[in-house]
Amino acid sequence: MLHRAGNVHDSNGALDFIRSCFATLLARGFRGRLEARLDGAHFSEATCAWLRDEGIEFSVSVPFERFQS
């Protein structure tokens, strides 16, 4: 769990936090399938690319408004 100040958006530092969580699991000898479920606040091309490149299965709930032009 990571508590942040109330004036910081959820996505601030999210990818570094996600990387750290998975690195901790692997360092402690976790064996199994890594998966992630993220809400729309954590949706970014960088996060999705990192998860994909690491072979981590993931889903992200993203509001449709994010895809309208």
Describe this structure in words.
The chain has 69 residues and is α+β, with helices and mostly antiparallel strands. The protein has a domain at 33-69. It contains 2 helices and 2 strands; from the N terminus they run αβαβ. It has helices at 14-27, 45-53; strands at residues 35-38, 57-60. It has a two-stranded parallel sheet. The chain starts with 13 loop residues before the first helix and ends in a 9-residue tail after the last strand.
Q: Give the spatial strand order of the biggest sheet.
A: 1-2
In helices, the fraction of residues equals 25-40%
> End-to-end distance, in Å?
35 Å
- Mean pLDDT level: 82
- The class by helix and strand makeup works out as alpha+beta
Which assembly state applies to the chains in this document?
A: single chain
How many runs of DSSP E, i.e. beta strands? 2
Rg for CA atoms: 13 Å
The largest sheet is: 2 strands, parallel
What proportion of the residues form beta strands (DSSP E)?
5-15%
**Contiguous runs where pLDDT drops below 50 for at least 5 residues:** none
Instruction: Specify the number of helices.
Output: 2
The H-and-E topology, N to C, reads as HEHE
Given the C-alpha coordinates, what overall shape results? globular
